[in-house]
Amino acid sequence: MTSAMEAVHDLVDALHHARPEDLPAMATRVAAGLGALDIELFLVDYGQVDLLPLAGGHGVPGEPVHIDGTLAGRAYTSGEVVRAGAPDDERIWVPVISGADRLGVLAAHLGAPPGDDAAFVRDLRVLAAAFAGIVASRRTYGDALERTRRRLPMQLAAEIIWNQLPPLTFATTDAAVAAILEPCYDVGGDAFDYAINGSTLHVAVFDAVGHGIAASALTSLAISAYRNARRCGLDLVDSCRSVDKWVHAQYPDGYVTAVLGELDIASGTYRRISAGHPEELLLRGGRLVRTLSGPTALPLGLGYLGGTRPVVTEERLEPGDALLLYTDGMIEARTEEGEQFGVGRLVECVTKALADQLPPAETMRRLVRTLLAYQRDQLQDDATALLLAWDPHP
């Protein structure tokens, strides 16, 4: 048997000429080296409902594993190793995480107890981390990983948006961001963005007027203009004005509501502009403290109507606080009887998950499952939310 480090070296050597669909065969070779019967890679689907096995170039895909109510799902949601079975027929599920972004699980099947149990589990964690890096880096080189993750055909408008987005989750030792986007296969005008530069964590949520490809193209322009302004070193006000200018120039009849925010993760100071967008919710100690002040600028693309500069407001967070940014589709989801999901249910769902000490990514996954169940999986509008949590550590 080989060591985990030797197995990782073998993976790296094979990676130079590997296609995404070669990953299952690579996992099989690693399994033989470590003394396992098999190692299989499962990727999470776009809706975060199932874990889907990655098939090889000529392989037949295995059966999906539901996240809720399964041991594999527990490994995915908890981020911890989960084990089950007899010593001579044991299965071990290891989370596959790139940074803070949950990609899926690695499933190992053992036919005999490992010689050094603790070392074997550490080896599996090392391999899971290696596969996470491989998946994150190889996903754009072929379509096998994308096809695996799709339970339904992706509409073109959604394809445009997803190709613009950063990973759903990001974290430092002091702050975390987790986002959701629904309907994930048919979203049009909603999007989010974030970036970390020094001690500043930038966050943004966008909601373009309209639906379909026209809305996704408008949102794509807004995201690109926002990133361009940010990367040029513009402050919040000038970034907002730049995006507003580009939206109006290219889509004179369109507009985008947005929140553009900056969190100083050293001090907890949150500065933001709300461009005609629903107000962020400040959560503290398991309850809603307040909503932040109403729009401080016109929607992006309509600034020419006002003639005034966007206004930046500040909020000083306390350790453990969280901010929830969302689009109106989150609260306007309705039952068949016409009752809206509303801010109250939105807050209740998030605060309950936070009270249960769930990580931000799992908090948002459960929020979207609750929202979809409320409207029987048939959202009438795009729904996006971003949770920004701040908890500094000395």
Search tags:
alpha+beta; six-stranded antiparallel beta sheet; 27% strand; 394 residues; 33% helix; 17 strands; 10 helices
Give the structure's gist in a few sentences.
The chain is α+β, with helices and mostly antiparallel strands and 394 residues long. It has helices at 4-15, 23-34, 71-78, 117-138, 144-149, 156-162, 212-231, 236-250, 342-355, 360-374; strands at residues 38-44, 50-53, 65-66, 82-86, 89-98, 101-110, 169-171, 175-182, 190-197, 200-208, 256-264, 269-275, 281-284, 287-291, 313-316, 322-326, 383-390.
Task: Count every helix, treating DSSP H or I runs of 4 or more residues as helices.
Answer: 10
Specify the structural class: alpha+beta
Query: Order of strands side by side in the largest beta sheet?
Result: 3-2-1-6-5-4
Tell the overall outline.
globular
Uncertain residue ranges: none
Q: Estimate what percentage of residues fall within beta strands.
A: 25-35%
Through-space gap between termini: 42 Å
Q: What share of the residues lie within helices?
A: 25-40%
Number of strands: 17
Describe the biggest sheet? 6 strands, antiparallel
What is the mean pLDDT? 90
User: H/E order of the elements?
Assistant: HHEEEHEEEHHHEEEEHHEEEEEEHHE
Radius of gyration (CA) equals: 22 Å
